Amino acid sequence: MRGRLAAGLLALAFSLSACSVAPSSSTALTAQGLTRGADGWYGMPLTIERTLPSVTLLSTDDRPVRLDEALLGTPTLLFFGYSSCPDICPIHLAAIASAMKQTRTSYDQVRVVFVSVDPERDTPERIDEFLSYFSARMLGLHADLDVIVDALAQLDLPGPVIEGPDPRGEGDLIGHPAQVIGFDADGRARRVWPFGTRRSDWVEDIPRMAREWA
Fold it and tell me: What is the mean pLDDT of residues 153-163?
């Protein structure tokens, strides 16, 4: 599995600047090139007020992590996905990791959290392996499906949807929310970045998160 995953992620890396890979999931709403807003951000502001979900997940070493408590104090990028995802997840995470490195933003300044929507396949070991291709400093979380659905519902996002066999022979494709949500240090959702957000967009927005949302 490690060899196939590494080869797939390497191939996707060549697409990051334009994000031209067509998403396999029908729930992957794609940005057709974000433009800088009047306020200077590329991430899109939220029209409704939301906070970190009040649910308890597990870290990959099986420590309980209550989102609305454990993630306070540091700006956070929260993303729901799965390790077998053919496009949305690796592209988002690779772009974020690259922008963090380029801007010299540490994961102590902006936390990056990946929550698996595929509890049947995503064991803690598999989540760790997947995130290691981007940064071992990203926080991987998992839980039973009903807990994940509850967390998504609190953010007005749909639960995961089985969309049929993956043509790569990796089991089923899973439709899941394609946006990354940004929370400030007080746990308030401030902006979202849809699939198709470019690395250059993250390069502009991530340092602002570290400066202004702490």
Answer: 90
Which range marks the domain in which residue 89 is found?
Answer: 2-212
How far apart are alpha carbons 180 and 9 in whole angstroms? Answer: 19
Q: Give the number of domains in the chain.
A: 1
pTM: 0.85
pLDDT, tens digit, 9 for 90 and up, residues 40-57:
999 999 888 999 999 999
Residue 12 and residue 93 in contact, taking contact as beta carbons nearer than 8 Å: no
Instruction: Annotate 129-180 with DSSP letters as a single string.
Output: HHHHTT-TTSEEEE--HHHHHHHHHHTT-PPPEEEEE-TTSSSEEEE----E
Task: Flag the least confident range among 83-92, 118-127, 204-213.
Answer: 83-92
Are 42 and 36 spatial neighbours (Cβ–Cβ below 8 Å)? yes
151 and 57 Cβ atoms separated by less than 8 Å: yes
For residue 28, what is the domain's CATH number? 3.40.30.10
